[in-house]
Amino acid sequence: MVSIDFKKIVLRNEYSLIQDVINATASNVSVETPDGECLLGNTEDNGGSRYPIDLNGQILGWVRGDQNAQVIANLISQLIYREAEKRSLAQELIGKYKEISLLFKLSEKIIDSSDIQEVASLVLEEARHLLKSSQGTLLLLQDTEVLERIASFGEEELFPTAIPLGSDIIGGIVQVGRGEIVNDLAADDRSQMTQKAALMCVPLKSKEATIGAISLSRSVAKPYSAEDLKLLTTMAFQVAGVINALLHERQLKESRQNDLIFRLSSQIRESLELDIILTTAVGEIYRTLNVERCCFLWVQTESGSDSTPGDDCSLSPSMCGLEIVTESKRSHLPPLVGEYRASVIGELAQWFGQQPLVQINDVHELADGATKTFLHTHDFASLLAIPVRTRAGHIGTICCGTSQEPRAWSDNEVDLLEAVTNQLAIALDQAELYDQSRHAAQLAQDKAQQLETTLEALQQTQLQLIQSEKMSGIGQMMAGVAHEINNPVTFIYGNLEFVQQYTQDLVDMVKLYQLECHSPSADLKMAVENIDLPFLLKDLPETLNSMTVGTERIRDIVLSLKNFARLDQAYVKAVNVHEGMDSTLLILRHRLKAYDGFPGIKIVKNYGDLPSISCYPSQLNQVFMNLLANAIDVLEVPPFPSSPKITIDTRQIDANRIQIRISDNGPGIVAKIRNKLFDPFFTTKDVGKGTGLGLSISYQIITERHNGSLVCQSQLGRGTAFVIELPIEQDTLKVHRSVQKDGTEQ
User: Fold this and answer.
1) By C-alpha distance, which of 189, 185, 242, 186 is closest to 215?
2) In whole angstroms, what is the distance from residue 535 CA to residue 517 CA?
3) In sequence order, what are the residues at sequence separation of 6 or more whose Cβ sits closer than 8 angstroms to the Cβ of residue 334?
4) Is there a contact between 188 and 170 (Cβ–Cβ < 8 Å)?
5) Distance in angstroms (rounded) separating the CA atoms of residues 562 and 568
6) Which residues are 163's β-sheet partners?
C-alpha cells in the first residue's frame, strides 16, 4: 500500500482550493488530523458533526462542522485517493523500469552464448548478485522424469545433482508448475534437509512446457519476498526461452546429421551418377559440420597416375599424389580442385592410403615439414579425413578442414564422417558397376539404333513398293481395258460416219421413189405401212446420231483412262494440271450421282490461269484420286450435308509455284486425328475399307518426289481442305532421287 502523509497533502499549495471551498461556502468547518490537530478552518470547537476522511478504509483525518462538512470531507477523500493513485503508478513504473533494465542486461549476457551450460552459469551469477543468494542451481528436465543439474554456485551442496520429478520441494514445485518461496526448509514437511535456510524455486517454462527449474537459497535471517519471487520468475522466463532455443538447435543439429545419412542413402538408391553423389555428400558435410572447406579426393598410385620421370614417389612407392575432384568452401578461400604430386603434399597421400582415420587438430604441431607447408599454404589450420577403398582398389577420401584456427574434432563429428564414408563406399562400388553396365548398354543402344534405322528404311521401301505395285497394277489394268475397248470402239466410230452417209443416201432414194411412184402396188403400200416408213425415215438418222454421241463418250472415257494411267509418261513432263484433274473427276463421276436419299455431290471448279508444270503425271493423278475419293467418302457418311459440295481452286502464287486446293463442306476433322493423317497405316475407316496408305503415299509423292507441300486445314462443322503447293519447274536429277525423312538423299 502507498504511504500517504495526510498533513502534508492538506497543507500543500496545490490543495489551497480546500480553503477556497470553505471560504466560498462560509461554512463553519475545520479539517483535523486523527489526533484532533486542526489543519484548516475554524480552530475553535464548532460543536458540529464529525465526518471521516478515508483512503481504502483507513481514516486519515476528520472534517468537523455544519451541514457542508460532509461534502468537504468527501472532496478531500477524493483528492487524497487521486494522490495515492499517482504515487502507486509512479512506483509501478519505476519497478517496471528496473525489471526491463534487468532483462536487458541479462539478455546482453546470454544472447551471444551458444552453450546451454554457459547460459545457465551466466543467469545464476546474475541472480546471485541481484537476489543476494549464497547457493543456487539450474536444472533441466531429462526424459520428463528427472531434473539434472547443469550449473550451480555455492560451497555447500544444498542441491543434489539429480531430483526425480515430484520428489522433494524442488521436484514438487516443478511438477505443479508454479514458483514458490520456502523461508524455512527445516520446518517444511516436503524437505529432507535439516539445515535452516530460505529457498526460492521457479520452474523454467517455454510455451507452456516445463523444461527445468532455477532455485536459490540464503540464510533464514534474510527471507525471500514476493518481489524477489517476481524478479526470479522474470529471469526464469527470459532464460527458459534461450535454453529452449539451444535445446532445439541441438536436436536440429542431431536431426540434420541423421538426415544427412538418410539423404545420402536415398541419393545412392535413386542415382548412380557418382559425380552427383560426391557433390551432394561434400556439400552436406560442409554445412552440417560447419567447416571452412570440405572436399573429396582420389589417392593416385603409380599404376593409376600419369607418372613422369622425376616424380618423387620415395615416400610411398605406390602412392604418388592426390587428385581433388570436388569441394565446398568459404568464398574467400582459393580453390583446391586439381592434381598434387607427392613432392608437394608430403606424407598426405601415404596417410590417406594406409590409415583408417587422419585427424589433425592443429597443423602447426605436425612433424613432417612438407605436409605442414602444403596444408598451411592452402589455409588448413586443422584437418579431419576418412579414406574409403573401392572393390577395384581405388582409394577415395572425404576431407574436412578449418582455416581460421585449430579445431578439436569431436567424436560425434568423426562418427558422422565415418557414417558418410560407409555410404560412399557403397556408392563407389555401385558407380563402378554402373559404368560397366552403361558401357555395355551404350553398345546395345548403338546396335538398336542401327536396327531402327534399317527398319525405317525397310518400311519406306515397303511403302514405295506398295505404291509402285499399286500404280503398276492400276496402269496395266487401265491400259488393258482401254486397249480392248479402244479397238472395237474405234472401228464402230470410224464406220458410223459411213453408215450415216449410206443411210442418208437410202433415205433420199426412198423419198425420190415416193415422188416418182404415184401408184404403188398394194403389196408396197402394205410394206410401207408395216414398217411405218415416215417414222423410220425420221428416227433412223436420230438413232445414228445417238450412237455417234455414245461412241464419242466411250472414246472420252478411254482417253481419260489413258491420261490417268499415263503409262507413256513415266518421267518428268510438262503437263496441264487441269487435264489430270478432269480425267480423275470423269473416272469418279459415278460416285457423284444421287441415290436412295443421297442428294449427290456438286463439283465446283475455280480454275485459275495455270501454266504447264513439270511433274510425274501418273503420280500426281494418283494424289488427286486419293484426295477426291477421301472427300467423297466423308460426304457419303450420314447425316448428309444439305448440299454436299467439293470445291477445287487452283492459282499461281508466285513466279515458280502453283497452289491446288481441294475442299469439302463435311463435318471437319478434330486436331488429334488431323495430326496423324499422313502417318503410314493410320486410318479412321472401318476394317476392310481403308489401308491407311493413301494420304501417306500422297504426302510422299508431293513432298519427296515433287519438292512441294501438302497440308490439311480443317474446322469442325465447316469442312476440310487439302492444300497442295508445287513448283512449276523441277530439277530433273533431284526429282529422280529418293529423299529420306531426315533430308538426306540416297
Assistant:
1) 185
2) 20
3) 378, 379
4) no
5) 9
6) 147
Which grid coordinates are listed for 398? 572425404
Which residues have C-beta within 8 Å of that of residue 293, sequence separation ≥ 6?
A: 286, 327, 328, 329, 330, 333, 336, 379, 380, 400, 401, 402, 403
pLDDT in tens, 156-197: 567 788 888 888 888 888 888 899 998 888 788 777 766 788
Give me the residues paired with residue 649 across strands: 606, 661
Give backbone dihedrals phi and psi of 723, rounded to 5 degrees, phi first.
-110, 120
CA angle 315, 325, 339 (to 5 degrees): 40
Residue 322 β-bridge partners: 299, 340
| Cβ-contact 600, 640 below 8 angstroms | no
Cβ partners under 8 Å of residue 74, min gap 6: none
**Which H helix or E strand runs over 389?**
strand 382-389
Say whether 313 sits in a helix, a strand or coil.
Answer: coil
Max alpha carbon distance in the chain (Å)?
A: 194
Terminal-residue alpha carbon distance, the chain = 111
The secondary element (H helix, E strand) that includes residue 149 is: strand 146-153
Convert the pLDDT of each residue in 100-132 to its tens digit.
Answer: 555 555 555 555 566 788 888 888 888 888 888
Residues 6+ apart with CB under 8 A from 323: 297, 298, 300, 338, 339, 340
CA distance 299 to 401: 18
Q: Nearest to residue 43, comparing CAs of 64, 26, 23? A: 64
> pTM score, two decimals?
0.35
Place of cell 466410230: 493
The Cα angle at residue 388 between residues 386 and 394, in degrees rounded to 5: 135
